[in-house]
Amino acid sequence: MFLPIPKVLKEAELRQVREALAQAKFDDGAPSAGRQARRVKRNEQLPRDSEAAKKMGGIVSGALRRHAAFISAALPYRMTEPLFNRYAPGMRYGAHIDNAIMFQTPPLRSDVSVTVFLSEPSEYDGGELVMEEIGARRKLKLAAGAALLYPSTSLHRVEPVTRGARLAAVLWVQSLVRDAEQRRLLFELDRATQAVARRTADAPELALLGKTYHNLLRMWAGA
Ligand code: NI
Predict the structure, then answer these.
(1) Is residue 145 helix, strand or coil?
(2) What pLDDT does 30 receive?
């Protein structure tokens, strides 16, 4: 499922993260990629163990965790710490697939990839996130503070930046529900239920919809 979620970060959080990143020292991003991805990865990353990465990472993770649409779509069991990256002119990340297993302790299986955009589209040219699917191509550039959720199983790339700088945070989610199709069904059922509740808060169908949702989640959850 490809899901853009606008305004994940509050204005003040976005400003704080951007100010910290403007001062931060970035390293070459290639060494942290998998063997195949490393050959096509040309960007800069904030060292994971830096003070700035830990502090800003907490802000981004916290913003995602309090966002209902993120929880409903990703059903997170565990998440990696956000990784902050910067693409200056000439930088890109060619077509690649994200590592299936993130070797932290304990290891994490990537089900859902998340990019949180930290630069406004007007601040840079190029740098679109491109998803390749059979018969379809999506090209996305979201507003600063928005998140894009996409399947970790997808082949994707970041187009070369030709002007300005593209700042973003990326992280990976191991979902409670491993199967992407089951996750999508739960998300749609949850959305439909919320829509019914908004229209008629005391609709008698809500109890049955809730029962179905939770019993499907009970059946499919297993991380
Ligand atoms: Ni990737």
Answers:
(1) coil
(2) 82
Distance CA 140, CA 43 (A): 18
* Residue 67 near residue 7 (C-beta atoms within 8 A): no
Spacing, Cα 4 to ligand 1 middle (Å): 16
**Cβ-based neighbours of 54, under 8 Å, separated by 6 or more:** 81
Cα of 102 vs centre of ligand 1, distance in Å, is 12
Give residues whose Cβ lies within 5 Å of ion ligand 1: 98
Residue 73's contacts (CB-CB under 8 Å, 6 or more residues apart) are: 1, 3, 5, 112, 149, 183, 187
The pLDDT of 188-208, averaged and rounded, is 95
Per residue in 110-144, pLDDT tens? 999 999 999 999 999 999 999 987 788 889 999 99
Tell me how far the alpha carbon of residue 41 lies from the centroid of ligand 1, in angstroms.
Answer: 9
Determine whether 177 is exposed, middle or buried from the number of CB atoms within 10 Å of its CB (0-12, 13-18, 19+): buried
Nearest in space to 116 (alpha carbons), one of 90, 100, 88, 140: 140
Q: Which residues contact 106 (CB under 8 A, 6 or more apart)?
A: none
